[in-house]
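Handout, section B. The chain below has 161 residues.
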Amino acid sequence: MPLNINFQQIFLHLLNFTILFAAMYFLLYKPVKSFMDKRAAYYTDLDRQAQEKLEEAERVRLDYQHKLEAAAGEIQEKSAQAQKLAMEAAEQQLKKAQAEAAHVVAKASAEAKAEKERIIHEARGEVEEMIAVVAEKLILANTSAAYDQFLEAAGKEEQDA
């Protein structure tokens, strides 16, 4: 053996190294690689789930945003309708109040006219009574004056006769 090289020992060392490498591969490398693969798969799955939840949350947010916009439009529409109904009700109340006011004015006018007619009628009656009283007094005064004249004339005729 030149150079003091023992090929048998080299082969034994290679065999030991191969056995050690195989044992380490099966005892350490495979379980660690399996653990790392599982861990990578777990975090990949976790990341995928988080991404799905994020996308779902974004869809829900957009859905709610659309619903809010639709509700805002509906609220505005209902508000416009309510305002229109309130205006119509106010107009009806105004027309009703105007009609009632016209009715009250007409009734008051009719009552005033009736009162005027009653007062005129009463005044005519009083005037007629006063005329009758005055006429009676005039007639009585004239009658009494005529009677007095008759008596005087009769008395003169008796004295003359």
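Note. Helices lie at 7-160. Compare this with the example in section A.
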